[in-house]
């Protein structure tokens, strides 16, 4: 008998191992209906009256809700149905369910959409609220409220409760918006119909009268709900597909994010704490998804701030991108903005909550921007590692986005012909369209703001047409399972079987609130372990048309104990538990909480304050209406909007630093003089016909006064125009300037200007970067090395000697340059960066610049570089560098193996350069442009690609004949990461990416200095770019950053502590000093100049300012460390900062070295020598 038992055990183990062998790495197992008993299928049967022409939302599916309807400790499931009745499945345990729809009294014939499980009548049993759409008959559109009778039967009572709304609704969210102790309801409305012109810019309806206006129902406390939409400020139109509730701004009151389909703005309703809401979307969020689908609001980075994820329809693969994404023209985009619509782009958006009411959209950086025709995002910890992962549903019953189909359908949109015949033909063509049955997506949260696609590894990539989804621990085993409502396919039931070797732990929490809100909806939870903190806000309506498990789930990773669990209940009461076991379910009751614990807001002093107004600075940069895309339609971005620069110096000899800020074409730049009290007065203006770029104060003619050089840029006209002539203005010593003719003829649209006496002849020479050849991008623009030949005559004169330098043609589209002695040999070298340029290094060999290529270790560093600045950041005695690049939050990617390229030539012989760009998508090189875009640039492509499909199926190599590319001018980029360039000595460098927080947008402004007076060099960053083409969208995620230096590393100071907010299209960034403290000037394209002041220090405002002949200082600290500080005439991006060192108690000694190598100690302890 024992032998037989042993045989059965071994045989069973063998079967278990072999049966799991194929799926041993899959986290989820798709269970068959024969196992689960869940056989629901949301079947659509199209006919003459039910089709996409009669009802636009016929393919938008239905949701799923989960909850324990009979209080037996097992989670039950309801699937909503469109043309079929929804179904309720009772959980019997062991992942087995029973369909109790009919016995429960839940059969119905209405077009169900979203569904919520919530205890509406507060009797301790979950009720079911179903949203309804579809029918033209008003009575058949009434929403349904099934009240749980407590005996596994339900009674429909929506009319009685005042919730039988008939407005074609998509979903509901129950929460206590007015904090009166009971649950109110927000109703998401979407009556999308063709006659509403849903994708056409038109005056927005903002008075609450629109048929597409959502509704807010207040719980009156007497068993009735009343529509209070208008008085509560719910006034904005939209075609809602998602509603997420959360305390988004952290004030203790629930807010709402509404994602709207089509052109309508998404809405961010911020609770005003008086029963009303105000939309703050345009103030807090820079751009949104265009066709906003479902959304979820959750904390993805465990910082306590809720982030917002909204889905759209951007495919991951090239073929579908080219097949369903129509081109968005720049003019149409501008018209949309002018009509009051916010910037919107066709992609998923992840809004990272930065606090202070500011968000950064990081979908591309996070790796979740493109999941095709998506519906439901669910952020939850599916692998129990302590971080919220992402599950996305996907698919559409008919691939209506097919551009060939759309253009074919337009042939029926003529006034000629029988209407009924044309409709039948349209219906026939739709019936022939294939289903866009697509894999759903799963992403693992990597803990650094990015996600890893794990759909196949987790076993959830079965192709389907999926809509609503919900998560719940169906088998009470400590991990989250998934339920998915599919159209024309059986529903998915995914059991989370985990990966045994992970051995991650969990904690489940059952909240038991007070009467009126027994589920504790709106509670905030914080779970702390030895090495992590997690936050959760308890709201159930999530994703798309669905409602998740009311039992709160936390993954704990490898933690063996929970240090604390904290709950802030909706009424403000507080509860805390310590030393809790893992792998358990806690039951927390609001009645045990301490009443009315009020968290006092601590007023916190920031490092910086916005002092613009108090200092009397008023300057706003105004771009003209030049649109580069008129000249070259497929440019990746414009070059007419790259300025302005900022320059700092004492220009009037009063010992106070002043500044210049450039203007746009048609606008004068301006000088500001500093007053003795640290405020400013406006000085003279300059010629307005130029587009000002970089600017520099320096002594051009040896008279001791700071003259002004301004680079002319932009693309107002074609090359070789006077409009691109740089300007030198000579200073009379009192801050009055007069233009000089000392410069040679310059006909290049330029960028930067930086000065140094590179040949050691006693005067300052200039490097001037050439930015772009107007109308001929990406052809090289000439850069200049202007040697100062003023001599003893005092007559300013400069000549271009660049042709004498071998390798100067490496400088093609320069954005920034820096004179720096990288090898400490006493001769200043030149490092330059630019667009499609490598990091170019010229070594100074006794006054001769020699190009360094192979020796520096900087091969294949081509990128879209912007600014460069230097500092001895690791305090090893040589200068390291920080370089701004495009960043990693873009659809464009580039690596050494898979570069982004442009093949430029006049392909169709129409007299203009065609910059054909390509980059890699899923390992294959493809054209970056849509078919419409490339035809707009090269009309000959129309005959080559007669259909969108033929274009979509062709990679780059097959798009052109070999001979067409032979004589093309080719540029490549291998690296888009803003980077730290470490000087490792011996003329070699190591290039490393900066932290991901600095990769959210292009970095431009880089300012290096000791801002907090601890003796270490800190760094300020600004960035963004609004000069992009419309399909890519603005780069606007960066808010500015303050990185506090520690000698060998940096600490990123969050916005609420730094106070440095630069959330605009920033350009020049410069430091200037005054007796009142240190100022930071932050310029922006097409916007106001900002001046930030550092808060006064106990150390006062003592500083050492160096003359132009001082090359660098050696700063020795009291802790025994020292660092080298170079003094630049021009650095960062288009800017010039003060040449000073702030003195503080941590500095022991300062020794300066001039350009001839002479040294002098100028500061010891408190004594200035």
What does this structure look like?
This protein is mainly beta and 1169 residues long. Among the domains are: 81 residues; 481 residues, Methylamine Dehydrogenase, Chain H (7 Propeller); 73 residues, no CATH class. It has 17 helices and 81 strands. β15 and β16 form a beta hairpin. The chain is globular. This is Similar to ASPIC and UnbV protein containing FG-GAP repeats.
Helical residue percent?
under 10%
CATH class designation of the domain at 608-893 and 974-1168: Mainly Beta
From the alpha-carbon coordinates, what is the Rg to the nearest angstrom? 32 Å
How many DSSP helices? Answer: 17
CATH topology of the domain at 608-893 and 974-1168: Methylamine Dehydrogenase, Chain H
* Sheet of most strands: 5 strands, antiparallel
Basic shape: globular
By DSSP, the count of extended strands is: 81
Which consecutive residue ranges, at least 5 long each, have pLDDT under 50?
1-23
- CATH architecture designation of the domain at 608-893 and 974-1168: 7 Propeller
Mean pLDDT, all residues:
93
CATH superfamily heading of the domain at 608-893 and 974-1168: YVTN repeat-like/Quinoprotein amine dehydrogenase
Structural class: mainly beta
């Amino acid at each position: 008998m024992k032998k037989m038992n042993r045989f059965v055990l071994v045989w069973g183990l063998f079967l278990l191992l072999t049966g799991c062998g194929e799926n041993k790495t899959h986290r989820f197992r798709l269970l068959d209906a024969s196992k689960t008993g869940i056989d629901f299928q949301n079947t659509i049967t199209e006919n003459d009256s039910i089709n996409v022409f009669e009802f636009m939302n016929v393919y938008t599916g239905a949701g799923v809700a989960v909850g324990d309807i009979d209080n037996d400790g097992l989670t039950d499931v309801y699937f909503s149905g469109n043309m079929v009745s929804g179904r309720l499945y009772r959980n019997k345990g062991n992942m087995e369910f029973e369909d109790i729809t009919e016995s429960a009294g839940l059969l119905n014939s209405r077009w169900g959409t979203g569904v919520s499980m919530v205890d509406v009548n507060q009797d301790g049993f979950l009720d079911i609220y179903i949203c309804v759409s579809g029918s033209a008959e008003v009575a058949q559109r009434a929403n349904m409220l099934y009240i749980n009778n407590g005996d596994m039967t339900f009674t429909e009572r929506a009319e009685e409760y005042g919730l039988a709304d008939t407005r074609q609704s998509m979903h509901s969210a129950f929460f206590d918006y007015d904090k009166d102790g009971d649950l109110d309801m927000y109703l998401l409305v979407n009556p999308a119909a063709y006659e509403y012109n849903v994708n056409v810019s038109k005056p927005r309806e903002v008075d609450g009268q629109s048929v597409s206006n959502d509704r807010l129902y207040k719980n009156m406390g007497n068993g009735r709900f009343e529509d209070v939409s208008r008085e509560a400020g719910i006034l904005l139109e939209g075609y809602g597909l998602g509603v997420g509730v959360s305390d988004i701004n952290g004030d203790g009151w629930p807010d709402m994010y509404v994602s709207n389909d089509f052109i309508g703005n998404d809405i961010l309703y911020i609770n005003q704490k008086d029963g009303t809401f105000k939309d703050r979307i345009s103030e807090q969020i820079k751009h949104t998804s265009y066709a906003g689908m479902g959304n979820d609001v959750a904390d993805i980075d465990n910082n306590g701030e809720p982030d917002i994820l909204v889905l759209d329809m951007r495919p991951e693969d090239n073929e579908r991108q080219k097949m369903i994404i129509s081109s968005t023209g720049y003019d149409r985009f501008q018209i949309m903005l002018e009509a009051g619509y916010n910037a919107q782009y066709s992609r998923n958006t992840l809004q990272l909550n930065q606090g202070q009411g500011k968000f950064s959209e990081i979908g591309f950086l996070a790796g979740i921007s493109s999941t095709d025709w998506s519906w439901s995002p669910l952020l939850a910890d599916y692998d129990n590692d302590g971080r919220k992962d992402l599950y996305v549903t996907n698919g559409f019953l008919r691939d209506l986005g097919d551009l060939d189909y759309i253009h074919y359908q337009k042939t029926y949109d003529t006034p000629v012909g029988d209407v009924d015949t044309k409709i039948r033909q349209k219906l026939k063509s739709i019936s022939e369209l294939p289903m866009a049955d697509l894999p759903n997506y799963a992403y693992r949260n990597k803990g650094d703001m990015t996600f890893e696609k794990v759909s196949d590894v987790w076993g959830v990539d079965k192709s389907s047409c999926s809509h609503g989804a919900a998560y719940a621990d169906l088998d009470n085993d400590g991990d989250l399972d998934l339920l998915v409502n599919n159209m024309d396919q059986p529903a998915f039931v995914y059991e989370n079987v985990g990966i045994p070797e992970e051995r991650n732990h969990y904690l489940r929490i059952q909240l038991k609130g007070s009467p009126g809100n027994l589920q504790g909806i709106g509670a905030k939870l914080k779970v702390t372990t030895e090495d992590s903190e997690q936050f959760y806000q308890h709201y159930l309506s999530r994703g798309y048309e669905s409602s998740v498990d009311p039992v709160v789930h936390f993954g704990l990773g490898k933690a063996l104990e929970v240090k604390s669990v904290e709950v802030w209940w909706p009424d403000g009461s507080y509860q805390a538990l310590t030393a809790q076991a893992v792998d358990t379910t806690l039951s927390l009751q609001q009645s045990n909480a301490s009443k009315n614990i009020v968290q006092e807001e601590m007023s916190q002093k920031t490092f910086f304050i916005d002092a613009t107004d108090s200092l009397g600075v008023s300057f706003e940069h105004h771009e003209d209406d030049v649109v580069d895309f008129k000249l070259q339609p497929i440019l990746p971005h414009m070059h007419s909007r790259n300025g302005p620069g900022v320059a700092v110096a004492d220009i009037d000899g009063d010992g106070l630093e002043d500044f210049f800020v450039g203007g746009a074409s048609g606008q004068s730049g301006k000088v500001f003089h500093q007053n003795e009290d640290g405020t400013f007065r406006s000085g003279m203006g300059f010629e307005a016909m130029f587009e000002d770029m970089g600017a520099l104060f320096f002594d051009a003619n040896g008279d001791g006064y700071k003259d002004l050089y301004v680079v002319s840029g932009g693309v107002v006209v074609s090359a070789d125009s006077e409009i691109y002539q740089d300007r030198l203005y000579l200073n009379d010593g009192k801050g009055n300037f007069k233009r000089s003719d000392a410069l040679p003829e310059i006909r290049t649209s330029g960028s930067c200007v930086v000065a140094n006496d590179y040949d050691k002849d006693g005067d300052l020479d200039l490097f001037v970067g050439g930015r772009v050849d107007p109308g001929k991008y990406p052809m090289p623009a000439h850069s200049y090395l202007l040697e100062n030949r003023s001599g003893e005559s005092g007559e300013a004169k400069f000549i271009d000697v660049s042709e004498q330098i071998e390798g100067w043609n490496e400088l093609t589209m320069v954005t920034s340059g820096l004179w720096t002695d990288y090898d400490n040999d006493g001769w200043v070298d030149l490092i330059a960066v630019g667009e499609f340029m490598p990091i170019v290094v010229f070594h100074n060999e006794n006054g001769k610049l020699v190009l360094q290529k192979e020796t520096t270790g900087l091969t294949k560093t081509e990128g879209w570089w912007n600014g460069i600045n230097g500092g001895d950041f690791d305090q090893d005695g040589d200068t390291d560098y920080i370089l701004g690049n495009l960043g990693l939050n873009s659809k464009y990617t580039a690596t050494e193996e898979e570069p982004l390229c442009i093949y430029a030539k006049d392909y169709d012989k129409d007299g203009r350069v065609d910059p054909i760009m390509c980059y890699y998508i899923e390992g294959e090189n493809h054209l970056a442009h849509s078919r419409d875009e490339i035809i707009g640039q090269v009309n000959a492509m129309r005959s080559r690609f007669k259909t969108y499909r033929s274009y979509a199926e062709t990679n780059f190599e097959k798009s052109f004949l070999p001979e067409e590319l032979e004589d093309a001018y080719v540029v490549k980029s291998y690296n888009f990461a803003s980077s730290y360039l470490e000087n490792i000595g011996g003329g070699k460098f190591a290039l490393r990416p900066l932290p991901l927080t600095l990769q959210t947008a292009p970095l431009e402004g880089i300012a290096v200095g000791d801002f907090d007076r601890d003796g270490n060099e800190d760094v300020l960053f600004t960035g963004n770019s609004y000069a992009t083409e419309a399909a890519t969208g603005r780069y606007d995620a960066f808010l500015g950053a303050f990185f506090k230096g520690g000698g060998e590393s940096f600490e990123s100071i969050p916005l609420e502590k730094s106070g440095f907010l630069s959330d605009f299209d920033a350009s020049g960034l410069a430091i200037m000093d005054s007796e009142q403290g240190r100022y930071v000037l932050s310029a922006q394209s097409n916007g106001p100049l900002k001046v930030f002041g550092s808060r006064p220090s106990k150390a006062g405002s003592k500083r050492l300012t160096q003359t132009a002949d001082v090359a660098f200082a050696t700063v020795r600290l009291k802790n025994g460390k020292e660092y080298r500080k170079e003094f630049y005439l021009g650095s960062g991006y288009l800017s010039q900062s003060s040449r000073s060192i702030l003195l503080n108690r941590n500095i022991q000694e300062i020794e300066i070295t001039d350009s001839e190598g002479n040294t002098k100690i100028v500061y010891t302890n408190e004594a200035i020598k």
